[in-house]
């Protein structure tokens, strides 16, 4: 069964490499024709320059051709998902569309599953998320992810199709919880990076992770997610990885903010946009998310790191 990975960044390239190594028929699509031509010629991923692309991996900039595959994995940034879906002219009715992007849309406050359902109502939206770094997947290191879909039969089929010897997928019937866990942990990772960058220590980071996880649960449950989902790979697992490793771009952005350094604006950091989207959504629903709101203000340079910590530490005392 053919698979197309839409998005030739680090994560999309890594997924394509892992799948083709396990014998799958895979096409990796990217919108930058020059970069794709370079990848085809030198067999190196642009975002993973030390990784060799397997000979069997097809690399293409033809979106219509790529979308004829039986299953599509969308690994573009969350904020570009609506635009990409709008460009797809190939009929997608009855086809699994697996979103491997983490974030909430700034314009609609929606996650990828609802964005896909609205744009391509005949397709089956799935969410692929969990604790994973692209370089680990590309290197063939063991990785476990959550695959979430409201349709149990589709989820079982795609789980079998995308699981490999080193990539283990666990099913979930809760796409809302899975995508919110993957989106919100990026926001908390920025806060934790800022904490360490400012020299506030590991104890403060542990407090931010714990209270941040409480915010993740609070919002997810209010939006209809299942509490167990946030306790799994797509919530707690991803939070633990992203808040503690400089491999995370969100964590690195936080480090830069905490240190007062300039962060490379060309690097996509999903958590910055998600912080703004989730803060607006929470305010609209009357949900208290102080860490997310403070992180949004910090990433927009509306407050300093000192102001951010003061804001959180001066909140009224309460029960945990």
Automatic annotation (TrEMBL):
UniProt entry keywords in alphabetical sequence: Cytoplasm, Lipid biosynthesis, Lipid metabolism, NAD, NADP, Nucleotide-binding, Oxidoreductase, Phospholipid biosynthesis, Phospholipid metabolism
Major localisation: cytoplasm
One Pfam family named in its UniProt record: NAD_Gly3P_dh_C
Domain of life: Bacteria
Record-annotated active site: 185
Pathway(s) of this molecule: Membrane lipid metabolism; glycerophospholipid metabolism
GO biological process, alphabetically ordered: carbohydrate metabolic process; glycerol-3-phosphate biosynthetic process; glycerol-3-phosphate catabolic process; glycerophospholipid metabolic process; phospholipid biosynthetic process
Keyword Cytoplasm on entry: yes
Residues annotated as binding sn-glycerol 3-phosphate: 102, 130, 132, 185, 238, 248-250
Annotated substrate binding sites: 102, 249-250
EC number annotated for this UniProt entry: 1.1.1.94
Residues that, per the record, bind NADPH: 11, 31, 102, 134, 249, 270
The name this protein goes by in its record: Glycerol-3-phosphate dehydrogenase [NAD(P)+]
Name of the gene encoding the protein in the UniProt record: gpsA
């Amino acid at each position: 069964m053919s698979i197309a990975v839409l998005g030739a960044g680090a994560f999309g390239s890594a997924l394509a490499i892992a799948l083709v190594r396990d014998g799958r028929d895979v096409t990796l699509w990217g919108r930058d024709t020059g970069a794709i031509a370079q990848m085809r010629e030198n067999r190196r991923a642009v975002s993973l320059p030390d990784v060799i692309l397997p000979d069997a991996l097809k690399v293409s900039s033809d979106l219509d051709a790529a979308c004829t595959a039986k299953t599509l994995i969308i690994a573009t940034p969350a904020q570009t998902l609506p635009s990409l879906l709008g460009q797809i002219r190939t009929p997608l009715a009855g086809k699994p569309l697996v979103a491997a992007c983490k974030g909430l849309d700034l314009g609609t406050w929606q996650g990828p599953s609802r964005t896909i359902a609205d744009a391509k109502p005949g397709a089956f939206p799935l969410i692929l998320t969990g604790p994973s770094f692209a370089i680990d997947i590309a290197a063939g290191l063991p990785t476990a992810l959550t695959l979430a879909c409201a349709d149990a039969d589709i989820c079982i089929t795609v789980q079998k199709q995308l699981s490999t010897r080193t990539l283990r997928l666990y099913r979930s019937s809760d796409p809302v919880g899975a995508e919110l866990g993957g989106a919100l942990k990026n926001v908390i990772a920025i806060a934790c990076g800022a904490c360490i960058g400012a020299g506030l220590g590991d104890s403060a980071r542990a407090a931010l992770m714990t209270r941040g996880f409480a915010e993740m649960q609070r919002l997810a449950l209010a939006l209809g997610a299942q509490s167990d989902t946030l306790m799994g790979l797509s919530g707690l697992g991803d939070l633990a990885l992203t808040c503690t490793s400089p491999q995370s771009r969100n964590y690195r952005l936080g480090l830069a903010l905490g240190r007062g350094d300039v962060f490379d604006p060309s690097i996509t950091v999903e958590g910055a946009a998600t912080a703004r989207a989730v803060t607006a959504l929470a305010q609209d629903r009357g949900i208290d998310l102080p860490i997310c709101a403070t992180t949004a203000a910090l990433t927009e340079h509306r407050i300093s790191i000192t102001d951010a910590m003061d804001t959180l530490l001066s909140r009224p005392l309460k029960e945990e």
